[in-house]
Structure formats: structure tokens, C-alpha cells
Design goal:
229 residues; Rossmann fold; Arc Repressor Mutant, subunit A; five-stranded parallel sheet; 10 helices; elongated
Amino acid sequence: MVNAPKINSIDTMDREQQVVYVIDDDAGIRDGLQLLLETTGQTVSVYANARDFLVDFTPIMNGCLLLDIRLPNMSGLELQIHLKKLHSTLPIIFISGHGDIPMAVEAMRQGALDFIRKPFREQDLLERINQALLIASSRHKQQWMAGELQSKLALLSDRERQIFSRVANGDMNKVIAADLGISERTVEVHRSQLMKKLKIKTLAQLVRCKLQEEQLYLPAYMNARQGDK
């Protein structure tokens, strides 16, 4: 029996929700990987091709992807690129029976965690899967926190959003009031309301929310800038 590598500190509930998704057109490989992983306590879902996987795919999937680089109709590389467009957070480990260096380089350039050639040592694969699941757990937590923040920010009125940004940038209430043409007391009321909606109590927490918001939209901003070039 294969000894699974020690799992580091992943939240128990999050760990139980993680799935290792296997996509390989070779039934023998699929069955072998499923047996190996289930023996070590992993939850496994197997697919013969990329299209079948995409039918089940959702951006909130938590786990990792073992992906054969050579698949019929849609290759592993094509699926990887497509998943990036769908905002997948699944770490990808490519497996291949072919020593195709250019494909391996492209897979890594596109963000794959690793590229493993068949036949592989079971222990090596399990260690890489463990690493992938640790990364997935962190990404999933960040995704959940981002969703929570977006939900809270959506509750703010336009005026509250203005004041939120100004306070986070360090502006005093009286300066904000003068610039917006409202009383300082009105600024204080809006500030109190927005902090209740964001479920925060201190200025430091407010600034942290603003920084987190900027981090949420920075990737989209950078992609737009690259598209303009």
C-alpha cells in the first residue's frame, strides 16, 4: 500500500471538499490513478476527455487537475488556456507519455504546477498532488474572501462609495465635506453607515478593505492595459 505524504495544515472541512480531477483518454491510466488516489483517501473524479470535464466545470471547484497533455478534440494545453479564461483556480499537473519539451515549456509558461512524464513514481505524484491541494486551498480561501468583500461593497450607496474611497486615502471628514458640498456631520453619518455595511470598526480595517478591493480589480485592469498595447 502506498504511503500518502503527510498533509500540512489545511482546514479539515476545506480538505474534505477537495477533489482530484483526472482527465486522460486511456482508461487504464484513469482507473489506475483513481485506485491509487482513493487508496490514499482522496476524492477523485475521472474524465475521458476535456469536453466532458467542461460540462461539469464551475469556477468554484476546489482541488487540482491531473491532465494528460495529449487528448482527442481538445488537447490538454487547449483546456488549460480555456480554463484560464473561465477563471479556474485549479492547479494543473500535466502527465504525458511523450517527451515533448516544447509542450512542457508552454504548459509551464501558462501556469501549470508541474509536467510529469509517464511512467512516474507514485510517491512523487502524490507529493505533487499534496502540494497542488495546498495551493488550491489557499486560492479557494482567497476566492471566498473576495466574494464576501464584493457582496459587502455592493451594499454601499454611491455617496458611501465616494466617502469610503476618500477616507481610505487619508482625507479628513471636513475636507471630504467641503469637496462634496455636504456637512461634516453628513460625512460622519455616511461613514458610520458604510462601516456597518462592511462589518468593520476601525480605520485600519477600512483601509485594508480598500486595498483588498484594489487587488480584486488589479488583474482585470492589467489585462485591459495589455489588450491596449
